[in-house]
Specification:
This protein is of the alpha/beta class. Helix content is 36%, strand content 22%. β5, α6 and β6 form a beta-alpha-beta unit. It is flat, with a radius of gyration of 31 Å.
């Protein structure tokens, strides 16, 4: 019975996984998924899933091809009880919410977008302690007693001494029979990563632009957290000036005024220098803007900061330009002219939600 339940559960999971893979682009472009996120799982709404099975019955119960009528006689719509708008008694289509672990969602994302595994750069500075059982001892705490080994030792002792009675197979371990697991503590190095999100919050970045950033950030986060055990997230917003904020403020703040992108890059560089030394951290800055910047002088300042400070320290620097009716879109052109052949700088244009899917692949497809 247990095996049957396990098989059915595994089959159900495979069906759910297949439906998610089939509709992944649709899930990526919708923001409802993020609101259903728990600590380690996300609740995904799926149309009702029914496993096909045969039903047996008699042939005189009616059905397709049975009943009164001649061959070729057209079938009408049948009687329509009541008028339009009345409450019906038939069940409608149900939606099933399935909890999927974020690690499984990341695996599906990686398979569908063909994302390579990330090889962490720099030295692995943080070491975690892990207990590994390495053998069996004659002494130890009762919580680590190895019951199988203890029972076996007691059985061998009773057989060799002639105490064992096959008609009354009672095995009672004594102190000398007890065996305990022993362990050693290993220090395993772990790679650290930090994601630094930066977003233009000037007046030209409206709700739809921020929602695109929010959705894409969720999927980026999901993938990178599947690649690193230790990961930090930092959030920077900017118009003419930049400041560090929490996650909620990052996605809901609305400000106005001009745009000075260099202020965000300067703050990002300061964060790296003070909190995330490149020898100890894998660093992923993501900047989202509509491409409108205050003057050519500030753009040149941005290019200098990238070239001399940020790019030498990070795994990749990702810039996503979100289309806005008010933004000029010039900034990505200037970056492309300066860093087109530099693999550390990845540029992506996101004109609508439908392009989030391809933008994620642009950013994460190099496996850096």
């Amino acid at each position: 019975m247990t095996n049957k339940i396990g098989r059915d559960s595994s089959r159900f999971k495979q069906i759910v996984r297949g439906k998610i893979k089939k509709e992944l682009r649709k899930y990526i472009t919708k923001g409802e998924l993020i609101g259903r996120k728990g600590r380690n799982v996300v609740s995904i709404p799926l149309p009702q899933i029914q496993l096909p099975r045969f039903r047996y019955g008699t042939q005189d119960t009616g059905g397709v091809g049975q009943g009164e009528g001649d061959i070729g006689q057209p079938l009408g719509k049948g009687d329509q009880p009541g008028g339009p708008g009345e409450a019906g008694e038939n069940p409608g289509e149900h939606v099933l919410e399935v909890d999927v672990e974020l690690s499984e969602l990341a695996k599906i994302l990686g398979e569908e977008l063909e994302l390579p595994r990330i090889e962490p750069k720099g030295k692995k500075a943080i070491a975690s302690e892990k207990d590994v059982y390495t053998g069996i001892h004659r002494s130890g705490p009762e919580s680590l007693r190895h019951f199988k080994r203890t029972f076996k030792q007691a059985l061998l002792r009773q057989i060799s001494s002639g105490e064992y009675d096959p008609d009354d197979p009672l095995v009672l371990p004594i102190r000398e029979d007890k065996r305990y697991r022993s362990w050693k503590t290993h220090r395993e190095p772990e790679a650290n990563a930090v994601i630094i999100y930066m977003m233009d919050v000037s007046g030209s970045m409206g709700f739809e632009q921020k929602e695109i950033v929010r959705i894409e950030s969720f999927w980026i986060d999901t993938w990178l957290r599947s690649q690193y055990k230790n990961i930090e997230s930092r959030y920077i917003v900017h118009d003419a000036t930049a400041k560090e904020v929490d996650q909620h403020t990052f996605f809901h703040i609305r400000e106005s005024g001009g745009t000075k992108i260099s202020s965000a890059y300067e703050l990002c560089n300061r964060l790296i220098e003070e909190q995330f030394p490149p020898d100890d951290w894998n660093i992923y800055p993501f900047h989202f803007s509509d491409g409108d910047n205050w003057g050519g002088d500030d753009t040149r300042r941005c290019i200098k900061l990238l070239d001399e400070h940020l790019l030498p320290r990070v795994n990749v620097f990702c810039y996503g330009q979100v289309k806005s009716a008010y933004g000029s879109g010039q900034f990505i052109k200037d970056l492309r002219a300066s860093f087109e052949k530099d693999e550390r700088c990845i540029l992506s244009t996101i004109s609508s939600r439908e392009e989030i899917y391809d933008s994620i692949k642009d950013f994460l497809g190099k496996g850096r």
